[in-house]
Amino acid sequence: TVDWTHYNTLEEINSWLDDLVKKYPNKVESVVGGKTYEGREIRGVKISFKKGNPGVFIEGGIHAREWIAPATVTYIANELLTNTDEKVRSFVENYDYYIFPVANPDGYKYTFEKDRFWRKTRKPYGKCFGADPNRNWDFHWHEAGTSSSACSDTYGGEKGFSEIETATLSEYILSLKGKIHTYIAFHSFSQLILFPYGHSATHAPNHNDLQAIGDAAAKRLAEKYGTRYTVGNVYDAIYPASGASMDWAYGVAEIPLSFTYELRPNGGFDGFELPEKEIIPTGEETFASVLTLLEEGKKLG
Ligand code: 0X9
Ligand code: ZN
Protein backbone atom coordinates (compact mmCIF):
# COMPACT_ATOMS: atom_id res chain seq x y z
CA THR A 1 0.00 0.00 0.00
CA VAL A 2 0.90 3.68 -0.05
CA ASP A 3 1.25 6.34 2.59
CA TRP A 4 2.56 9.87 2.35
CA THR A 5 5.07 9.80 5.21
CA HIS A 6 7.66 8.23 2.93
CA TYR A 7 8.34 7.62 -0.76
CA ASN A 8 6.70 4.46 -2.06
CA THR A 9 8.18 1.83 -4.33
CA LEU A 10 6.69 0.86 -7.69
CA GLU A 11 5.34 -2.35 -6.14
CA GLU A 12 3.72 -0.43 -3.27
CA ILE A 13 2.09 2.01 -5.66
CA ASN A 14 0.80 -0.76 -7.94
CA SER A 15 -0.66 -2.75 -5.08
CA TRP A 16 -2.29 0.44 -3.78
CA LEU A 17 -3.93 0.91 -7.19
CA ASP A 18 -5.31 -2.62 -6.84
CA ASP A 19 -6.59 -1.74 -3.37
CA LEU A 20 -8.44 1.28 -4.75
CA VAL A 21 -10.24 -0.84 -7.33
CA LYS A 22 -11.31 -3.27 -4.58
CA LYS A 23 -12.39 -0.53 -2.21
CA TYR A 24 -14.28 1.60 -4.75
CA PRO A 25 -15.47 -0.87 -7.39
CA ASN A 26 -18.10 1.49 -8.76
CA LYS A 27 -15.78 4.46 -9.07
CA VAL A 28 -12.31 3.14 -9.79
CA GLU A 29 -11.25 1.05 -12.75
CA SER A 30 -7.76 -0.27 -13.37
CA VAL A 31 -6.33 0.94 -16.68
CA VAL A 32 -3.14 0.16 -18.55
CA GLY A 33 -1.65 3.15 -20.33
CA GLY A 34 1.17 1.29 -22.02
CA LYS A 35 4.20 -0.94 -21.73
CA THR A 36 7.86 -0.53 -20.84
CA TYR A 37 11.11 -1.75 -22.35
CA GLU A 38 11.59 -4.22 -19.50
CA GLY A 39 8.07 -5.56 -19.99
CA ARG A 40 6.18 -3.80 -17.24
CA GLU A 41 2.79 -2.14 -17.58
CA ILE A 42 2.28 1.57 -17.18
CA ARG A 43 -0.53 1.23 -14.71
CA GLY A 44 -3.20 3.72 -13.85
CA VAL A 45 -6.72 4.18 -12.61
CA LYS A 46 -9.75 5.79 -14.13
CA ILE A 47 -11.80 7.48 -11.42
CA SER A 48 -15.34 8.29 -12.45
CA PHE A 49 -18.27 9.35 -10.32
CA LYS A 50 -20.94 9.53 -13.02
CA LYS A 51 -21.40 9.19 -16.75
CA GLY A 52 -20.69 11.96 -19.23
CA ASN A 53 -18.07 13.89 -17.28
CA PRO A 54 -15.21 15.64 -19.06
CA GLY A 55 -11.83 13.97 -18.60
CA VAL A 56 -8.63 15.03 -16.91
CA PHE A 57 -5.38 13.20 -17.64
CA ILE A 58 -2.75 13.18 -14.90
CA GLU A 59 0.75 11.84 -15.47
CA GLY A 60 3.56 11.62 -12.91
CA GLY A 61 7.00 10.12 -12.73
CA ILE A 62 7.98 10.24 -16.39
CA HIS A 63 11.34 11.32 -14.96
CA ALA A 64 12.37 8.53 -12.64
CA ARG A 65 14.25 10.45 -9.95
CA GLU A 66 11.55 13.06 -9.36
CA TRP A 67 10.01 11.08 -6.53
CA ILE A 68 7.69 13.81 -5.28
CA ALA A 69 5.75 13.53 -8.57
CA PRO A 70 4.33 9.99 -8.08
CA ALA A 71 3.83 10.82 -4.39
CA THR A 72 1.79 13.90 -5.25
CA VAL A 73 -0.21 12.11 -7.94
CA THR A 74 -1.18 9.31 -5.53
CA TYR A 75 -2.01 11.98 -2.93
CA ILE A 76 -4.34 13.67 -5.42
CA ALA A 77 -6.00 10.36 -6.37
CA ASN A 78 -6.58 9.64 -2.69
CA GLU A 79 -8.10 13.08 -2.07
CA LEU A 80 -10.42 12.71 -5.06
CA LEU A 81 -11.83 9.58 -3.43
CA THR A 82 -11.71 10.43 0.28
CA ASN A 83 -11.95 14.20 0.75
CA THR A 84 -15.19 14.82 2.65
CA ASP A 85 -15.51 18.59 2.25
CA GLU A 86 -18.87 19.15 0.59
CA LYS A 87 -17.67 21.89 -1.72
CA VAL A 88 -14.73 19.76 -2.81
CA ARG A 89 -16.96 16.74 -3.42
CA SER A 90 -19.54 18.59 -5.46
CA PHE A 91 -16.71 19.94 -7.63
CA VAL A 92 -14.48 16.90 -8.07
CA GLU A 93 -17.31 14.54 -8.94
CA ASN A 94 -17.91 16.42 -12.19
CA TYR A 95 -14.80 15.05 -13.86
CA ASP A 96 -13.38 11.71 -14.94
CA TYR A 97 -9.73 11.27 -14.01
CA TYR A 98 -7.21 9.13 -15.85
CA ILE A 99 -4.33 8.90 -13.40
CA PHE A 100 -0.88 7.43 -14.05
CA PRO A 101 1.39 7.97 -11.03
CA VAL A 102 4.47 6.32 -12.57
CA ALA A 103 4.77 6.90 -16.32
CA ASN A 104 8.33 5.48 -16.39
CA PRO A 105 8.15 2.34 -14.23
CA ASP A 106 11.51 0.83 -15.35
CA GLY A 107 13.30 4.04 -14.47
CA TYR A 108 11.45 4.50 -11.19
CA LYS A 109 12.34 0.99 -10.05
CA TYR A 110 15.95 1.63 -11.02
CA THR A 111 16.08 4.73 -8.80
CA PHE A 112 15.13 2.61 -5.79
CA GLU A 113 17.51 -0.24 -6.52
CA LYS A 114 20.55 1.05 -8.40
CA ASP A 115 20.86 4.78 -8.98
CA ARG A 116 18.79 7.33 -7.05
CA PHE A 117 19.39 9.97 -9.73
CA TRP A 118 18.38 8.04 -12.84
CA ARG A 119 16.07 10.11 -15.08
CA LYS A 120 15.44 8.25 -18.34
CA THR A 121 13.99 5.00 -19.64
CA ARG A 122 16.15 1.83 -19.46
CA LYS A 123 16.46 0.74 -23.09
CA PRO A 124 20.11 0.10 -24.04
CA TYR A 125 21.74 2.38 -26.62
CA GLY A 126 25.25 1.05 -27.14
CA LYS A 127 27.16 1.50 -23.91
CA CYS A 128 24.57 3.90 -22.50
CA PHE A 129 20.99 3.45 -21.42
CA GLY A 130 17.73 5.17 -21.96
CA ALA A 131 16.16 8.10 -23.73
CA ASP A 132 14.59 11.06 -21.98
CA PRO A 133 10.89 10.19 -22.11
CA ASN A 134 10.12 13.91 -21.93
CA ARG A 135 12.05 14.58 -25.14
CA ASN A 136 10.73 11.62 -27.12
CA TRP A 137 7.14 12.60 -27.96
CA ASP A 138 6.55 13.09 -31.65
CA PHE A 139 5.65 16.76 -31.79
CA HIS A 140 8.47 18.99 -33.04
CA TRP A 141 10.71 16.14 -31.93
CA HIS A 142 14.40 16.96 -31.56
CA GLU A 143 14.07 20.66 -32.35
CA ALA A 144 15.22 22.24 -29.12
CA GLY A 145 16.78 21.53 -25.73
CA THR A 146 17.49 17.89 -26.48
CA SER A 147 20.60 15.83 -27.14
CA SER A 148 21.51 13.32 -29.85
CA SER A 149 24.00 11.59 -27.55
CA ALA A 150 22.61 8.43 -25.97
CA CYS A 151 24.68 9.08 -22.86
CA SER A 152 23.01 12.42 -22.22
CA ASP A 153 20.21 12.86 -19.72
CA THR A 154 18.21 14.69 -22.38
CA TYR A 155 18.77 12.16 -25.17
CA GLY A 156 15.71 12.39 -27.39
CA GLY A 157 15.89 8.82 -28.68
CA GLU A 158 16.41 7.62 -32.27
CA LYS A 159 13.19 9.21 -33.46
CA GLY A 160 9.91 10.42 -32.04
CA PHE A 161 8.33 7.59 -30.06
CA SER A 162 11.40 5.35 -30.25
CA GLU A 163 10.62 4.48 -26.63
CA ILE A 164 7.89 1.94 -26.06
CA GLU A 165 6.73 3.92 -23.02
CA THR A 166 5.93 7.10 -24.94
CA ALA A 167 4.72 5.22 -28.05
CA THR A 168 2.20 3.17 -26.09
CA LEU A 169 1.10 5.92 -23.71
CA SER A 170 0.48 8.27 -26.64
CA GLU A 171 -1.67 5.61 -28.33
CA TYR A 172 -3.66 5.31 -25.14
CA ILE A 173 -4.16 9.07 -24.96
CA LEU A 174 -5.29 9.14 -28.60
CA SER A 175 -7.80 6.40 -27.82
CA LEU A 176 -9.40 8.90 -25.42
CA LYS A 177 -9.54 11.62 -28.04
CA GLY A 178 -12.31 14.12 -27.44
CA LYS A 179 -12.77 12.95 -23.86
CA ILE A 180 -9.86 14.80 -22.27
CA HIS A 181 -9.81 18.56 -21.96
CA THR A 182 -7.06 18.99 -19.35
CA TYR A 183 -3.64 17.34 -19.28
CA ILE A 184 -1.36 17.70 -16.26
CA ALA A 185 2.19 16.32 -16.06
CA PHE A 186 3.95 16.31 -12.69
CA HIS A 187 7.71 16.78 -12.41
CA SER A 188 10.17 18.24 -9.97
CA PHE A 189 11.77 20.55 -9.19
CA SER A 190 11.68 24.38 -9.38
CA GLN A 191 8.13 25.39 -8.38
CA LEU A 192 6.76 26.24 -11.79
CA ILE A 193 3.48 25.88 -13.62
CA LEU A 194 4.34 25.55 -17.29
CA PHE A 195 2.29 25.41 -20.46
CA PRO A 196 3.08 25.02 -24.21
CA TYR A 197 5.20 25.47 -26.14
CA GLY A 198 8.64 24.11 -25.39
CA HIS A 199 9.95 23.97 -28.97
CA SER A 200 9.50 27.62 -29.87
CA ALA A 201 8.94 31.06 -28.42
CA THR A 202 5.75 31.35 -30.46
CA HIS A 203 2.80 31.72 -28.16
CA ALA A 204 0.15 29.01 -28.20
CA PRO A 205 -3.23 30.10 -29.63
CA ASN A 206 -4.80 30.21 -26.14
CA HIS A 207 -1.64 31.48 -24.42
CA ASN A 208 -3.48 34.19 -22.49
CA ASP A 209 -6.04 31.75 -21.13
CA LEU A 210 -3.32 29.26 -20.14
CA GLN A 211 -1.42 32.04 -18.39
CA ALA A 212 -4.54 33.19 -16.53
CA ILE A 213 -5.44 29.65 -15.47
CA GLY A 214 -1.86 28.99 -14.35
CA ASP A 215 -1.73 32.26 -12.43
CA ALA A 216 -4.93 31.40 -10.56
CA ALA A 217 -3.60 27.91 -9.79
CA ALA A 218 -0.32 29.34 -8.48
CA LYS A 219 -2.14 31.91 -6.34
CA ARG A 220 -4.27 29.19 -4.76
CA LEU A 221 -1.20 27.03 -4.16
CA ALA A 222 0.58 29.84 -2.31
CA GLU A 223 -2.44 30.42 -0.05
CA LYS A 224 -1.79 27.12 1.77
CA TYR A 225 1.82 27.38 2.92
CA GLY A 226 3.20 30.39 1.09
CA THR A 227 4.95 28.25 -1.53
CA ARG A 228 5.61 30.47 -4.52
CA TYR A 229 5.35 29.22 -8.09
CA THR A 230 6.26 30.97 -11.32
CA VAL A 231 3.91 30.54 -14.28
CA GLY A 232 4.69 30.68 -17.99
CA ASN A 233 5.18 28.98 -21.33
CA VAL A 234 8.13 26.55 -21.23
CA TYR A 235 10.28 28.37 -23.75
CA ASP A 236 10.19 31.67 -21.88
CA ALA A 237 9.83 30.44 -18.31
CA ILE A 238 12.65 27.86 -18.28
CA TYR A 239 14.43 26.76 -21.42
CA PRO A 240 13.68 25.50 -24.92
CA ALA A 241 12.76 21.80 -24.73
CA SER A 242 10.88 19.87 -27.37
CA GLY A 243 9.37 16.41 -27.38
CA ALA A 244 7.62 16.71 -24.00
CA SER A 245 4.32 14.96 -23.29
CA MET A 246 2.53 18.19 -22.48
CA ASP A 247 3.33 19.75 -25.85
CA TRP A 248 2.31 16.61 -27.74
CA ALA A 249 -0.93 16.43 -25.72
CA TYR A 250 -1.65 20.01 -26.74
CA GLY A 251 -0.41 19.98 -30.31
CA VAL A 252 -1.33 16.50 -31.50
CA ALA A 253 -3.97 15.12 -29.13
CA GLU A 254 -5.60 18.56 -29.21
CA ILE A 255 -6.07 18.82 -25.47
CA PRO A 256 -6.55 22.57 -25.07
CA LEU A 257 -5.56 22.91 -21.43
CA SER A 258 -2.18 21.33 -20.95
CA PHE A 259 0.15 22.00 -18.02
CA THR A 260 3.31 20.80 -16.32
CA TYR A 261 3.90 21.29 -12.60
CA GLU A 262 7.49 21.40 -11.44
CA LEU A 263 6.92 20.67 -7.75
CA ARG A 264 8.99 21.53 -4.65
CA PRO A 265 11.67 22.51 -3.91
CA ASN A 266 12.55 25.81 -5.52
CA GLY A 267 16.26 25.07 -5.95
CA GLY A 268 19.34 23.41 -4.53
CA PHE A 269 21.70 20.64 -5.62
CA ASP A 270 19.66 17.94 -3.92
CA GLY A 271 16.33 19.10 -5.27
CA PHE A 272 15.20 15.60 -6.24
CA GLU A 273 15.53 14.53 -2.60
CA LEU A 274 12.68 16.50 -1.14
CA PRO A 275 12.41 15.57 2.57
CA GLU A 276 9.66 13.08 3.31
CA LYS A 277 8.01 15.45 5.77
CA GLU A 278 7.24 17.73 2.81
CA ILE A 279 5.24 15.09 0.90
CA ILE A 280 1.94 15.82 2.65
CA PRO A 281 2.19 19.64 2.53
CA THR A 282 3.15 19.38 -1.14
CA GLY A 283 0.14 17.15 -1.74
CA GLU A 284 -2.19 19.52 0.09
CA GLU A 285 -1.12 22.67 -1.71
CA THR A 286 -0.96 20.93 -5.09
CA PHE A 287 -4.40 19.34 -4.73
CA ALA A 288 -5.89 22.75 -3.91
CA SER A 289 -4.07 24.24 -6.87
CA VAL A 290 -5.29 21.56 -9.28
CA LEU A 291 -8.90 22.17 -8.24
CA THR A 292 -8.47 25.86 -8.99
CA LEU A 293 -6.81 25.02 -12.30
CA LEU A 294 -9.84 22.91 -13.27
CA GLU A 295 -12.27 25.56 -12.06
CA GLU A 296 -10.59 28.34 -14.03
CA GLY A 297 -10.22 26.01 -16.99
CA LYS A 298 -13.96 25.48 -17.02
CA LYS A 299 -14.55 29.24 -17.18
CA LEU A 300 -12.00 29.89 -19.90
CA GLY A 301 -11.62 26.57 -21.71
O1 0X9 B 1 13.17 19.35 -18.87
C1 0X9 B 1 12.11 18.80 -18.61
O2 0X9 B 1 11.67 17.82 -19.20
C2 0X9 B 1 11.23 19.39 -17.51
N1 0X9 B 1 12.04 19.81 -16.40
S1 0X9 B 1 12.74 18.65 -15.47
O3 0X9 B 1 13.66 19.32 -14.55
N2 0X9 B 1 11.63 17.96 -14.57
O4 0X9 B 1 13.38 17.69 -16.30
C3 0X9 B 1 10.44 20.54 -18.10
C4 0X9 B 1 9.28 20.03 -18.89
C5 0X9 B 1 8.48 21.06 -19.60
N3 0X9 B 1 8.91 21.11 -20.94
C6 0X9 B 1 8.10 21.04 -22.03
N4 0X9 B 1 6.82 20.83 -21.91
N5 0X9 B 1 8.62 21.21 -23.20
ZN1 ZN C 1 11.09 16.07 -14.97
Tell me about this structure:
The chain is α/β, with parallel strands linked by helices and 301 residues long. It has a single domain, classed as Aminopeptidase, CATH 3.40.630. Helix content is 36%, strand content 18%. The chain is built from nine helices and ten strands. The strands form two sheets. The protein has an eight-stranded mixed beta sheet, with helices on both faces. A two-stranded antiparallel sheet has the order 5-6. A hairpin with a 5-residue loop joins β1 and β2. α2 crosses α9. Zinc ion binds next to loops. Its cofactor is Zn(2+). Belongs to the peptidase M14 family. Its main location: secreted.
Describe the largest sheet.
8 strands, mixed
Using only CA atoms, what is the Rg? 18 Å
Could you say which structural class the secondary elements and strand pairing correspond to? Answer: alpha/beta
> Count of DSSP E strands?
10
Q: CATH architecture, please?
A: 3-Layer(aba) Sandwich
Q: Number of helix segments?
A: 9
**What is the CATH H-level superfamily?**
Zn peptidases
Hetero compounds: N~2~-sulfamoyl-L-arginine, zinc ion
Shape type? globular
Proportion in β-strands: 15-25%
GO biological process, one term: proteolysis
Function: Involved in the digestion of the blood meal.
Active site: 262
Family: Belongs to the peptidase M14 family.
